[in-house]
Design goal:
The protein is 23% helix and 18% strand. The protein has 588 residues and is of the alpha+beta class. Helix 8 packs antiparallel against helix 11 (386-395) and helix 14 (494-502) packs antiparallel against helix 15 (519-535). The radius of gyration is 25 Å and the shape is globular. The model is unreliable at 186-197 and 463-483 (pLDDT under 50).
Length: 588
C-alpha cells in the first residue's frame, strides 16, 4: 500500500498491465480535431495527440478537484510545453519540452516534436500563415482569444501575439481544444521552408484513424465501426506519474471504449464487470438518482463520485413561439413546478432547489444575482403556487377549454439526460391545464437545434444556460441579433445584445474590436444579464443536482476526476491502474 499524496488515502501500490474498458455514448465521425472539434475528436485521439498543458494531476484535491471543464492557470502543468510566460499583456511565450518523440510511423518516423509543429498546428486551427486562405476551424478553438500571429522563433520557442489585452488569456490558451498533429519535415528543418502537415500533408487530413500518430501515452490501434475503439500502451511515452514521479506512464497495457448508447445497457455492463468505469469520458455520466440508487443496492461495492456543475437538463423558453413568448406565461409555468418537492423526492435530497437565472447560484461566485438579494415579488415568481399560475394564464387569455387544457407545449430534451425529470415537469404542467409532449433528441439534433435561429419546440434543454468558469462564457447571453452560436432562447433583446457585445462576444470572441475588460467588469456585465433573465423567466429553474461517475473498486488512482482539460478525456486513464488481485478475488 502507498499513500496518495493528493488525497492522503492509502491505496494499492501502482502496478503495470491489464485492460481498462469504458462505455461511450457515441463515436466521433473521424479523428481530425480541425474538422470535428477537439471535444469530439478527443473520443479517439485524446491521449494519443497531446495539448500544451494538462491539469496538474499532482495537486491536492482539496485545492483543485478536477470537478469541471475549466481550470485556473495555476493548476496547469506543462505537457508539450514545458513552461510559458507573458513578457507583456499581448505576448505569450511557450518553451516547448525537448526530448518528446512522435510515434514511429512514416513520414515522421519517431522524430522529435518541436516548436515548428506547434506553429503549424496553430496556423491550421486559426487560419494563419499558409492556411489564411482556408480560414480557421469552424469549431471554436479560439475560446475568447483573438490571435494576431504565431511564430516559432527557434526549434523550442513559440511566440503568440494577441490583437489586444484579453481577460484570463492564460487560462484560455492552456486549457483549450487543440491537440497537436505532426507537420512534415525533420528536426533539421531550421529554415522552415518545408513544413507541410505530416500525416495531414500525406493524406489531405487526419480523418482516417489509421493515419493517426501522436506523442501521448496511448496508441490508437483499432476502430470497429459502430462497435468499439482500442488503444494500446505507448512504451516510449515521455511522461511520469505526477503523484509517483519514479513511475513511467502509462500503467495499463490496453484501453477500450465500447459503443453503448443506451443507459440500461451501460448499467448492465457495469454490473457484470464488462466495463470498469462510466463517467465523463464517453459522455456517459449517471444523471438519474434512481439509476444510481438502484446500482448501489445491487452492487454496493461500486464507487460513485458526484460533480455539481450546474442544473444540467434545465429547460429554456423559446421566445420564437407563442405562447411562451409572453413573460406572464413563462412566469406561470415557473410557478407551476414544485422544485422543493422534486429536490426532496426525485433528487433524494441531493438537489439544491434555490432558483437561478443565467448563472447557477453555486458555480461562479460574483457572476450571478444572488437569490438573497432578489426582491420578494421576484422570489414569489419562483415559488410553487399553482393557483396563482392558473390565474396568470387566465389573465393572459388562455382559459381552459372543454377538454381541460389551455394550450400545448413541446419539450425538446437532449437524450443524454434522464427523461424522468422532464416527465415530472410535464405532470405539473398538466395540473394547471397545459398539455405537453416530450421530444428526445440526439447530440447532433440538439446541436443543430440550439444553433438554429428558430425552432419548433417551446422548451429547449441545454447542459445549462449558465457559466462554467471565469474565462469562458459558455452560455446564451447573446441573442438572435448578436449571432450567438448557441441560442437556446431564440430571443431578440437589445439590452442583452449590448451586454454580450461588451464582453467582446463571449466564448467565441465575436467582436474583436470591443474594448478590453477586466474580471470585475466581466462579473458586473454577467450579473446584470443574470438579473434580466431572472426577472423575465428566460429559463425554467431547476434544482442544481449532481451527475455521477462510477467505477469498480479495482480501478485505482481515480477519485472522481472529470477529466484533465477540455480535450483531455482519455488522458486520465494513463494515470490509473488495475488491482489485478482484487479483480480476481471479486470473481472477474
Amino acid at each position: 500500500m502507498v499513500r496518495d499524496p493528493t488525497t492522503g488515502k492509502m491505496v494499492t501500490a501502482p502496478e503495470y498491465g491489464g485492460t481498462i474498458t469504458w462505455p461511450t455514448k457515441a463515436l466521433a465521425e473521424n479523428t481530425d480535431p480541425f474538422l470535428i472539434g477537439g471535444g469530439w475528436a478527443a473520443h479517439f485521439v485524446s491521449g494519443v495527440n497531446e495539448p500544451l498543458a494538462f491539469s496538474d494531476w499532482g495537486v491536492s484535491r482539496d485545492t483543485f478537484d478536477f470537478g469541471f471543464w475549466d481550470r485556473p492557470a495555476e493548476y496547469s502543468r506543462g505537457a508539450l510545453a514545458e513552461s510559458w510566460s507573458m513578457p507583456d499583456d499581448t505576448t505569450l511565450i511557450f518553451s516547448i519540452r525537448e526530448g518528446i518523440a512522435w510515434d514511429d510511423k512514416a513520414p515522421v518516423n519517431g522524430r522529435q516534436f518541436d516548436a515548428y509543429d506547434v506553429e503549424w498546428n496553430f496556423h491550421r486551427y486559426l487560419g494563419l500563415g499558409d492556411f489564411a486562405e482556408d480560414g480557421p476551424s469552424a469549431h471554436g478553438f479560439l475560446l475568447g482569444v483573438t490571435v494576431e500571429s504565431v511564430t516559432a522563433t527557434d526549434q523550442w520557442t513559440v511566440e503568440i501575439k494577441l490583437t489586444k489585452p484579453q481577460l484570463a488569456v492564460l487560462e484560455s490558451m492552456l486549457n483549450n481544444y487543440w491537440l497537436f498533429l505532426p507537420r512534415a519535415g525533420g528536426e533539421e528543418d531550421a529554415d522552415r521552408q518545408d513544413r507541410g502537415g505530416g500525416r495531414v500533408e500525406e493524406y489531405g487530413d487526419m480523418k482516417d484513424w489509421r493515419n493517426v500518430v501522436g506523442t501521448g501515452p496511448l496508441r490508437l490501434t483499432d476502430v470497429v465501426e459502430g462497435s468499439s475503439v482500442t488503444w494500446q500502451k505507448n512504451h516510449n511515452y515521455w511522461g511520469y506519474d505526477e503523484k509517483f514521479p519514479d513511475n513511467r506512464l502509462p500503467y495499463i497495457d490496453e484501453y477500450r471504449a465500447l459503443l453503448m448508447p443506451d443507459m440500461s445497457t451501460r448499467l448492465a455492463a457495469l454490473r457484470t464487470g464488462k466495463i470498469d468505469y462510466m463517467g465523463n469520458t464517453g459522455d456517459v455520466n449517471i444523471y438519474s438518482i434512481d439509476d444510481l440508487e438502484t446500482l448501489q443496492r445491487t452492487n454496493p461495492e461500486i464507487e460513485a463520485w458526484s460533480v455539481y456543475g450546474g442544473p444540467s437538463g434545465q429547460f429554456n423558453f423559446n421566445w420564437a413561439l407563442p405562447p411562451v413568448d409572453d413573460p406572464n406565461v413563462r412566469k406561470a409555468l415557473q410557478m407551476s413546478v414544485d422544485r422543493e418537492k422534486i429536490s426532496a423526492t426525485y433528487f433524494s435530497g441531493h438537489g439544491d432547489p434555490t432558483p437561478g437565472g443565467l448563472v447557477s447560484q453555486n458555480v461562479a461566485e460574483g457572476f450571478y444575482w444572488p437569490y438573497e438579494e432578489w426582491p420578494e415579488d421576484v422570489k414569489n415568481g419562483y415559488r410553487y403556487d399553482p393557483s396563482a399560475a392558473e390565474a396568470l394564464l387566465d389573465e393572459a387569455g388562455h382559459p381552459r377549454g372543454d377538454d381541460g387544457y389551455r394550450f400545448k407545449v413541446q419539450l425538446a430534451l437532449h437524450d443524454r439526460f434522464d427523461p424522468t425529470y422532464a416527465e415530472i415537469v410535464m405532470g405539473y404542467f398538466d395540473a394547471i391545464g397545459v398539455e405537453s409532449e416530450l421530444v428526445l433528441q440526439s447530440n447532433a439534433e440538439s446541436g443543430a437545434r440550439n444553433s438554429a435561429k428558430t425552432a419548433e419546440w417551446h422548451l429547449l434543454s441545454g447542459t445549462y444556460m449558465g457559466f462554467s468558469g471565469t474565462f469562458g462564457i459558455r452560455w446564451n447571453l447573446g441573442t438572435k441579433t448578436s449571432h450567438c452560436r448557441v441560442c437556446f432562447n431564440k430571443a431578440t433583446d437589445p439590452r442583452v445584445d449590448a451586454l454580450y457585445r461588451a464582453t467582446g462576444g463571449g466564448w467565441h470572441a465575436q467582436f474583436p474590436d470591443a474594448d478590453p475588460i477586466d474580471i470585475e467588469e466581466m462579473k458586473n456585465i454577467i450579473r446584470e444579464a443574470d438579473e434580466i433573465m431572472v426577472r423575465e423567466h428566460w429559463g425554467l429553474a431547476k434544482s442544481t443536482s449532481p451527475v455521477y461517475s462510477v467505477n469498480h473498486p479495482w480501478v485505482k488512482g481515480y477519485n472522481g476526476e472529470w477529466n484533465m482539460g477540455r480535450a483531455e478525456r482519455n488522458t486520465l486513464f494513463a494515470r490509473l491502474w488495475i488491482d489485478q488481485d482484487l479483480k480476481e478475488a471479486m470473481g472477474y
